[in-house]
């Protein structure tokens, strides 16, 4: 317990030491990347955690189910975009329709982690990122499934090279080494100060390593700040090009929100690394908890997600053909709307897949129906698949990991089932 308290203190203290200036933005979050081109080949994997429980029934709408609109008479606004004759896509993801038509976008419906009944964001996210089922709530479970995957690859030198924001990703906690970077870090330490810290922490390897890492990151501040500046300048230029028309005319396009711009920033930052030796990136987008006024809440979040994916595709260039993006959330939301034009915490939900490496143009999963007897607890979409199995089959297709490794080490206790043929 003493060691754990020291580690918690160290994590928080180091974050404060290197200057977490983004803490005022609650939706900003960590971006983590892992290197390993020699071992993992050319395939890239991007995992996006959608924090807050995205309403999959609103994002990928089962309009072919006769009960759908009767459950949500006041919730749905603009009509969805046709996907396959049964499902439609939320109009705020309309910019992704060219990807759907090109076979670079897919969805999984009626999927969930093993988490049931309590519907807590904290527990749900922990279980999603640990990938171990309900036993994640036991104190001895500390690592995340993506970190465990990195540990199973022989000869892989993994490095969480950059962290943008204030929140850590349990998805990548574990024995595989990680590093973090926070934008606008301000750590001015003289050579004398560094020597003093080295002496103070010389007999404490845990604190010594963290202090040295913080100072090393500070020394690279100028290089990283320049990259960040270039990303922001590029985004500003694109906004100017897109928003301006002929002199004297007004643009009827909606103004880009700060959330959209920041999501593009994260995507551009990650894409720059993925074009190099980095092979795996993970970050999260918050803002999906839509208890009231769901149309406004989810609309803004979907636009940010859309911009994130489009920016990845643009900046990755030819690398996009070897890229798979998985966007997943902790649980779904209720089938019926509530009295506040929103939805409450549910169970079954949807996940998004994108990238040139996937076999898109399809909504995967077995649809359970919306009849009250078919709902989970007579209120939620019934899960028909385990969200972990889709991630496992993705990693098997990308990196050739043995099924036994995925079912026993990466996702302990998982039964992957038949190959769904997610990748090209």
UniProtKB/TrEMBL annotation:
PROSITE patterns: TAT. InterPro entries: DUF1501, TAT_signal. Transmembrane segments: none annotated. Pfam families: DUF1501. This is Tat (Twin-arginine translocation) pathway signal sequence. It comes from Gemmobacter aquaticus.
């Amino acid at each position: 317990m003493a060691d754990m308290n020291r580690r918690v203190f160290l994590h928080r203290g180091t974050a404060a030491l290197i200057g977490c200036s983004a803490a005022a933005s609650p939706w900003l979050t960590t971006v983590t990347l892992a290197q390993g081109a020699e071992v993992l080949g050319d395939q890239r994997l991007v995992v996006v955690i959608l924090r807050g429980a995205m309403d999959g029934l609103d994002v990928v709408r089962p309009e072919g189910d006769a009960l759908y609109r009767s459950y949500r008479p006041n919730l749905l606004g603009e009509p969805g975009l046709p996907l396959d004759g049964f499902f439609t896509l939320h109009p705020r993801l309309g910019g992704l329709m060219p990807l759907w038509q090109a076979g670079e976008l897919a969805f999984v419906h009626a999927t969930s982690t093993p988490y049931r009944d309590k519907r807590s964001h904290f527990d749900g996210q922990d279980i999603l990122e640990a990938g171990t089922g309900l036993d994640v709530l036991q104190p001895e479970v500390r690592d995340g499934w993506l970190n465990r995957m990195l540990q199973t690859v022989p000869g892989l030198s993994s490095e969480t090279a950059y962290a943008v924001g204030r929140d850590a990703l349990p998805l990548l906690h574990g024995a595989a080494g990680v590093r973090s970077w926070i934008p606008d870090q301000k750590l001015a330490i003289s050579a004398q100060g560094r020597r003093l810290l080295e002496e103070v922490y010389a007999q404490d390897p845990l604190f010594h390593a963290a202090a040295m890492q913080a100072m090393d990151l500070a020394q690279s501040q100028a290089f990283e700040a320049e990259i960040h500046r270039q990303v922001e300048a590029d985004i500003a230029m694109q906004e100017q090009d897109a928003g301006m028309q002929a002199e004297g005319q007004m643009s009827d396009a909606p103004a880009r929100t700060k959330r959209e711009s920041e999501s593009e920033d994260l995507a551009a930052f990650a894409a720059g690394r993925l074009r190099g030796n980095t092979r795996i990136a993970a970050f999260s987008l918050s803002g999906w908890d839509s208890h009231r006024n769901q149309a406004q809440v989810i609309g803004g979040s979907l636009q940010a997600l859309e911009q994130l994916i489009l920016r990845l595709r643009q900046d990755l260039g030819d690398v996009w053909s070897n890229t798979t993006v998985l966007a997943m959330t902790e649980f779904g939301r209720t089938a019926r709307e509530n009295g506040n034009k929103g939805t409450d915490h549910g169970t079954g939900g949807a996940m998004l897949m994108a990238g040139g490496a996937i076999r898109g143009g399809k909504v995967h999963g077995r649809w359970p129906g919306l009849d009250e007897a078919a709902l989970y607890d007579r209120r939620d979409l019934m899960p028909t698949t385990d969200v972990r199995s889709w991630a496992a089959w993705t990693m098997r297709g990308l990196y050739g990991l043995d099924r036994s490794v995925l079912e026993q080490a990466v996702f302990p206790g998982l039964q992957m089932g038949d190959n769904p043929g997610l990748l090209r």
